[in-house]
Write a structure and sequence with these properties.
With 265 residues, this protein is an alpha+beta fold. 31% of the residues lie in helices and 29% in strands. The chain contains seven helices and 14 strands. The chain has a six-stranded mixed beta sheet with strand order 9-10-11-12-13-14. A hairpin with a 2-residue loop joins β10 and β11. The radius of gyration is 39 Å and the shape is elongated.
Length: 265
C-alpha cells in the first residue's frame, strides 16, 4: 500500500495521501455555509415579521371602526367625538393619540384631561375628565364657570346648583397693582376649598375686596369674615366651633382664627 508522500513546493511542505484532499495553504478556520435548519429558521422569522407588519397596517381586521367616550357629565359624546376627529377606517396602530388629546383640550376647555387609548382590535377609547365649577362669575344674564385651579372654562345660561357666586369687589388700587384679578380669584377658590362641608353647601357668595379681605354670604342672611386664604384649616375649625356654640349668630369673624368672634346672636 502506498504511504503518504512528501514534496516541497516553494518552500512549503505538501503532504498527500491516497483518497485525501491536499491543501497548499497553511491550516486555518474553514468557512462553512449555513445549514438547512438555520436557513429554515431565518425564513420563518422573516415571514413572521412580514406577516405582523401586514396584519398591523394592511389587514382589514385591525382598522378603526368605533369610538367609545366615557367620563362625561355636561359634554355630549357626539360633541367630543366630532372634535376628536378620529380617522375611521385607518390602521389602529397608526392613529396619533397625542394629536387627538391636544385637539380635545384646545377646542373644549371644559375638558381638564383626556386619555386616548387604542382598544384592540378595532376601537378608540376617549376617557374624559371634565372640569367642575368651584365658583361662578356673573356676566350679564349668564355665568362664567371657574374651576378649582382658577381657570375660567365655560359660560352657561343657568347657574349650576350649589356653586356660589364670586364677587371681585376690589376698591383699593394699590392692592390691584400688587395682586391681579386672576390672583385674587385663585385666592377665592382657595378659600372655597377650605370651607367645612355644611358651610360650603350654604355659601351663596364669596366676596373679595383685597387679598386679605375675603368674606362669605351664607343662606339665612349669615355672613363670615374669612380674611386671607392663609390658615384655612384653622379658620374652618374655628368657624365650625363658633356655629355649634352660637347657632343663632348672624356674623362670624375667623380672620384671626386664634381669636374668633360672633355677633348678631
Amino acid at each position: 500500500m502506498a504511504g503518504p508522500t512528501t514534496a516541497e513546493r516553494g518552500g512549503v511542505r505538501v503532504e498527500s495521501e491516497s483518497g485525501r484532499a491536499r491543501s497548499d495553504g497553511p491550516p486555518g478556520r474553514r468557512f462553512r455555509l449555513p445549514g438547512r435548519r438555520f436557513l429554515l429558521l431565518l425564513t420563518c422569522v422573516i415571514a413572521l415579521c412580514a406577516g405582523g407588519i401586514w396584519l398591523l397596517y394592511g389587514s382589514a381586521w385591525l382598522r378603526v371602526e368605533q369610538v367609545k367616550t366615557s367620563g362625561l357629565d355636561v359634554l355630549k359624546p357626539a360633541e367630543v367625538e366630532a372634535v376628536a376627529a378620529v380617522p375611521m377606517g385607518t390602521p389602529l396602530i397608526s392613529v396619533d393619540t397625542q394629536a387627538i388629546e391636544r385637539r380635545l383640550r384646545q377646542k373644549l376647555p371644559r375638558i381638564d384631561s383626556v386619555d386616548v387609548e387604542r382598544s384592540w382590535p378595532n376601537g378608540i377609547g376617549l376617557k374624559v375628565t371634565e372640569r367642575k365649577p368651584a365658583l361662578l362669575l356673573e356676566k350679564g344674564a349668564k355665568f362664567i364657570e371657574v374651576d378649582a385651579k382658577g381657570v375660567r372654562f365655560a359660560t352657561v345660561e343657568k347657574a349650576p346648583k350649589g356653586v356660589p357666586l364670586l364677587e371681585l369687589a376690589v376698591d383699593q388700587p394699590p392692592d390691584v397693582r400688587r395682586f391681579t384679578a386672576t390672583r385674587l380669584m385663585s385666592e377665592a377658590v382657595r378659600v372655597r376649598d377650605d370651607l367645612p362641608g355644611k358651610v360650603a353647601e350654604d355659601t351663596r357668595v364669596v366676596k373679595v375686596r383685597s387679598y386679605d379681605s375675603v368674606s362669605l354670604e351664607l343662606s339665612g342672611g349669615r355672613t363670615v369674615m374669612w380674611g386671607s386664604g392663609e390658615d384655612g384649616g384653622a379658620k374652618a375649625r374655628a368657624l365650625t366651633a363658633l356655629m355649634k356654640a352660637v347657632p343663632k349668630a348672624t356674623h362670624f369673624d375667623v380672620s384671626a382664627p386664634t381669636a374668633p368672634s360672633v355677633s348678631g346672636s
